[in-house]
Amino acid sequence: MADHVARKRPPRMDEASLKALKSGYVKQKADEALKKGNYREAWTKYTECLELSVGREGRDKLLSNRSMAYCKARRFEEALRDAEDCTGIAPRWEKGWWRMAQALFGLKRYDEAIDAYKECLEINAENKEADKSMWDAVLHLTTEQVAEGIVRMMERSQEEGKMKIPTVEDVTFPEKVEGMFRHIKFMSKDMDDRKLYFRKYRDWKKAGGWKAATGYTERGAMYAGAKCYLQAREDGMSAVKLLQKEKDESSQQARCVDEELAYAYSVVGEGYAAEAEHPDRDLKEATKAYTMAVDLSPTCERYKSRLQEYGRPLTDAQITELLREVYNLSSVDLPPSFLEEHGSRKGASTRKFCVRISVVFTASSPAHVTAKMRTGMLSQLTEALQVSRTDVIFDGMKVLPRKGLRVNFTINVHGDIVLGNGVKQQMEHDAYSCLGGSAMFDGTGVGVDQDDVQVELVDITPLVESKNDAESDGDVTEEGESNERSIVVPSRPKLELEMPYKLYKLVTSDGRPVERKEKRAFQMSRVYYNSSEKPEEVWAEICDGSCRWRQSSSEVKLIVLNVPLNLSPKDLHVEFKTRYLRVTHKHTGDVYLEGQLERSVVPQECFWTYLGGDGEDGLMIFLRKMNLELLQKYWEHSKSWWPRLFSHHSPIEWDDYEKDYSDLPEVVAIHHRKTEAIQDAERKQEQLESKKVESRKERNELRKRTRQERLNVLRTGLFKSWVQLERENPKIDPLASSRPSDVDKFGH
Q1: Which residues contact 217 (CB under 8 A, 6 or more apart)?
Q2: pLDDT exceeding 70 applies to what percent of the chain?
Q3: Could you give the percent of the chain with pLDDT greater than 90?
Q4: HSE (side-chain half, CA atoms, 13 Å) at 256
Q5: Coil/strand/helix, residue 264
Q6: Residues 6+ apart with CB under 8 A from 565
């Protein structure tokens, strides 16, 4: 009897182990399908893996991979759901946020995608791909969306207590967005940089917000754009106070802070400049603010032009008074701008000093010391004495009979008495060199009497502290709080902001906003006769939410927005008449759209489609225009354009979007092609004639130059080319002497 060899059976696997083994095999197949581009198979396999998975371990990676498969198949809604589940399981996993950002980008929800990319960068700051994609998402925003995002950041800062709420004037949220939009457009055009605020918005998003001073400056600019000029002044001055405090505490970043401070002063200036009809307009204070801005940022042409614009209407007496208020320290009542820049905090023990300098110039009148010379001397003093430009102050002039002109300067040294003594000694030793020397005064008729230079180091602490004590109760803190606790309800601005697009808005077919067009003179807009050249279609969405529509020369396309999703096409009834359109539910009688058409259509050629979705997958109606007005005047193609869809709608502005004349009626198109052919022939003929004229001019010019050279040989016996002759005998401009001389920085 044969011996039987006993075989040991393998241990039976439990159900969890079997599922794990099968899940690993299916995941491998899913990964292979994803690499090959078989996305349907991939997400199906990943779904099977998720059903087999036990517990939370590894589930986040499966959701991430399935999200990627959905995303590559452009099924962004499903991709977003998986990404949200993934980040819920693993909130500190970078890839989950990346998947969410990609899905949101695909759904064209760019602002939310920016927030998701920001989460990626917070987890891994070295992720260059996330940084690049974040910038790409910012560039896909419209200017109006950037403005709205910035306004929301302001409101968040107010809620978090970083900024105090407005107390003087306020407007509605849409008006704030419009004000910010106008400011962004102005700054982009003025600085020739369309992406200026796009970069700022990206940086603020990455940083998770802004410092309080930046918030006040931008809010002040926004309120100026929304015509809340009184609130703009207050926000601008709040920013000035915080920035000056920052500058005093961090001398290493003084130059960077100076630029921010100049911008804050410009916001104050715009608040005072307001508009011509504003009852509180104050050009003197506006000029004063821009004087400070120019001092802080002397290379900015925008500040200089604004200073001239606002200073030009002022009289010489007002300019003199303004300069004393900005620069003069001899008055007992110091100007607020000086105190905000140099004043100490309440209770501070630090002493404040300034150096007062009096120099006698050998000039007969103040006219000899021009504005250009004054600016140059201030710059030279700044460089020679090693002090800040904002601390060097021109303090007025006085005529001395039979002696000359006494010019006063003040150097503010804050609490540095050693610096003050150094300045005093240097000016007493060689004031002429400190003021610019021969490079400044040679040829001007102005000299410096070194023997009559008076320098004094003065303690101004009591003067500054008394002024600060009187105003300290309302000082703004870094957190945006105020010591004054009374509740104030802001009022509406004294001038109302005219809001555009109150009754309709311009969007794409799926409802996304489009970039607002730059308006041109005479409401001009571009015309397209070739359908291949047309840009993205722009639709007008009626603000009652009933429909959005667009048109070409022969057709009106209409999307009805109130139709429920996934409704059967058999349940819809669309009634076409020559001047009437009605959309209803066959069984319930619900009316989704009804109205008297602006112009006639051809009912037999009108039709509709419905795919059960939204946008162009929803209920779309195509109306064939009758175009009676165009056929009567076939050469005026604009006659085909409807100003509105229904007679009860408001008209669409003529230049809101381009005109599509690519489908003109055939009889009109034939005439247009003939006209274009004739005009092309005429243009070619004009070009030939122009070339002949240019050729004739060139020959005449050549003969003239040759004759000029020959005459010179006959007169002098030497040959010189016409170029040399032109250089030796330049033409004199007869109008040069009548042209106005350069104006000073105030436009005078």
Answers
A1: 235, 236, 239, 260, 263, 264, 267
A2: 86
A3: 43
A4: 6
A5: helix
A6: 612, 613, 614, 618
Q: How far is it, in rounded angstroms, from Cα 696 to Cα 261?
A: 60
Q: Cα separation of 117 and 137, whole Å?
A: 9
* pLDDT tens digits for range 696-725: 999 999 999 899 889 988 888 888 888 888
User: Nearest 5°: phi and psi at 244?
Assistant: -65, -40
Q: Which residues of 414-435 are buried (b: 16+ CB within 10 A; e: fewer)?
A: beeeebbebbbebbeeebbbbb
Kindly report, residue by residue over 431-441, the tens digit of the pLDDT.
888 888 888 87
Task: Tell me the CA end-to-end span of the chain in Å, nearest whole number.
Answer: 129
Weakest mean pLDDT among 2-16, 160-174, 259-273, 620-634 = 2-16
Structure tokens at 593: 């759209």
Dist CA 709 CA 703 (whole Å): 10
Helix, strand, or coil (residue 223): helix
Range with top average pLDDT, 83-87, 191-195, 247-251, 325-329: 83-87
Tell me the backbone φ, ψ of residue 239, rounded to 5 degrees. -65, -40
Q: What is the pLDDT of residue 438?
A: 81
d(CA 616, CA 596): 23
- Give me the pLDDT at residue 274, please: 92
Identify the CA nearest to 516 among candidates 336, 612, 655, 630. 655
Judge if pTM exceeds 0.85.
no
Q: How confident is the model at residue 102 (pLDDT cuts 50, 70, 90)?
A: very high
What per-residue confidence (pLDDT) applies to 485? 42
Cα–Cα distance for residue pair 156/71, rounded to 1 Å: 32
**Quick one: DSSP state of residue 513?**
B
Split at pLDDT 50, 70, 90, the class of 12 is: low
For residues 279 and 480, what is the distance between their CA atoms, to the nearest angstrom?
A: 29
Q: How distant, in Å, are the alpha carbons of 19, 84, 88 from that of 55? A: 12, 18, 14
CA-based diameter of the chain, in Å?
A: 148
Helices (H), 107-172: 110-123, 128-139, 143-159
- Give the residue, 370 or 108, on which the prediction is more confident: 108
- Strand, helix or coil at 357? strand
Distance of alpha carbon 54 from the chain centroid: 51
Burial group, residue 702, by CB count within 10 angstroms (0-12, 13-18, 19+): exposed
Look at residue 499 and give its three-state secondary structure: coil
Residue type, 207: A
Q: If you ran DSSP here, which 8-state letter would residue 482 be given?
A: B
Instruction: Give the distance, in angstroms, between the CA of residue 213 and the centroid of all CA atoms in the same chain.
Output: 18
Side-by-side strand order, sheet with 448-459? 392-400, 404-414, 353-361, 448-459
Across the chain, what does the average pLDDT equal? 83
Rounded to whole angstroms, the Cα distance separating 261 from 284 reads 19
Taking 50 as the threshold, does the pLDDT of residue 330 lie above it? no
CA angle 400, 406, 412 (to 5 degrees): 155
Strands 659-660 and 527-528, by their bridges, are: parallel
- d(Cα 190, Cα 184) in Å, to the nearest integer? 10
Q: According to the model, what pLDDT value does residue 472 have? A: 46
Rounded CA-CA distance 264/218 in Å is: 9
Burial class (CB in 10 A: 0-12, 13-18, 19+), 474: exposed
Q: Copy the structure tokens of residue 44.
A: 């199906």
Q: Are 411 and 385 in contact (CB under 8 A)?
A: yes
Is the Cα dihedral 497, 500, 504, 508 positive or negative? negative
Instruction: Classify the phi-psi angles of 295: left when phi > 0, otherwise alpha if psi is within -120 to 50, otherwise beta.
Output: alpha
